[in-house]
Write a structure and sequence with these properties.
The chain is α+β, with helices and mostly antiparallel strands. The protein has two domains: 209 residues, BirA Bifunctional Protein, domain 2 (2-Layer Sandwich); 43 residues, SH3 type barrels (Roll), CATH 2.30.30. It is built from eight helices and twelve strands. It has a seven-stranded mixed sheet, with helices on both faces. The protein has a five-stranded antiparallel sheet with strand order 11-10-9-8-12, with no helix packed on it. Strand 6 and strand 7 form a beta hairpin. Bound molecules: biotinyl-5-AMP.
């Protein structure tokens, strides 16, 4: 079914998130489109949704496969009164909201640091976090979410090559088509609920809920993308959103941007 802003608005129960939704047929990246609006002073809760992205991306510029007509690509603007070092922890709202929306579809999601959402051990969603600061305070945070709803398996395989087998879709997991408009509204509703929890009670309950769904704590992993790759065991995630682990030499290390692979 086509994305339809009226249906999304009808299903939305939020006060702030999504009060202004811009829906596009094609954009380079919803994060990029929203960044322009954020710089021009758009208020908190502004959302960009697109049917297709021609240059969707993940962390460190990696491409995010974003075909038309099947998935959710959305970016949401927040202006939280937090210092920059708290942004990574704040961003956990996004994987939590996606995980809740997936659970409401009758599936069992887990979260892999920092913000991947998995179902049946396959990555079905990712989050791209961008932020800007003014005088060492956060001006805006953009949480960009991509969720594989109905993309066919052969398309994932063709686009992602050997890593296609690590990706999945909700359609595949649930055995039925997922309603894109209802799912979009569901994510927005849950994002606002978690943002409200963060605003009123701080990061602790958000982190606790996130840890409840986390699959890495206690596991042996390989870290890539932060200098020489190394292995270690995950100890915890700290309040600032870093992954804390002990490497094989017993040294404690914090990971902020690395890529984590579970060892068997
Ligand atoms: C992410 O990056 O997982 C963040 C993805 C965020 C995408 C959304 S869509 C809306 C908004 N606008 C954007 O431009 N981005 C956001 P990362 O953890 O770096 O993972 C990237 C890796 O995931 C790639 O290297 C691929 O291996 C894999 N990948 C790419 N496309 C995928 C897809 N559709 N489904 C599953 N895995 C994918």
């Amino acid at each position: 079914m086509d994305l339809d802003i009226e249906i999304i608005q009808k299903n939305r129960t939020t006060r702030v998130v999504g009060r202004d939704i811009r829906l596009f047929k094609t954009v380079t990246s919803t994060n990029e489109a929203l960044r322009g609006l954020a710089k021009a002073g758009a208020p908190e809760g502004t959302v960009v949704i697109a049917d297709e992205q021609t240059s969707g991306h993940g962390r460190l510029g990696k491409p995010w496969f974003s075909p038309p007509g099947v998935n959710l690509y959305a970016s949401v603007l927040f202006r939280p009164p937090i210092p920059p070092r708290e942004v990574a922890g704040f961003s956990f709202l996004a994987s939590l909201a996606i995980a809740d929306a997936i659970k409401a579809e009758g599936l069992e999601p887990t979260i892999k640091w920092p913000n991947d959402v998995l179902v049946d051990r396959k990555k079905v969603a990712g989050v791209l976090v961008e932020f800007a600061t003014i005088d060492n305070r956060v001006d805006y945070v953009i949480l960009g979410v991509g969720v594989n709803l109905n993309v066919p398996r052969d398309a994932l395989g063709a686009a992602l090559g050997s890593s296609g087998s690590a990706a999945g879709s909700l359609h595949e997991a649930a055995g039925r088509e997922i309603d894109r408009n209802a799912f979009a509204a569901s994510v927005l509703n849950r994002l606002e609920a978690w943002a409200e929890t963060y605003r009123t009670r701080g990061p602790a309950p958000v982190l606790a809920a996130w840890l409840d769904r986390d699959i890495l704590t206690g596991r042996r992993v390989e870290v890539r993308g932060e200098g020489v790759p190394y292995e270690g065991r995950v100890l915890r995630v700290d309040r600032e959103g870093h992954l804390v682990l002990r490497d094989l030499l017993g040294k404690r290390r914090r990971v902020l941007t690395g890529e984590i692979r579970l060892c068997a």
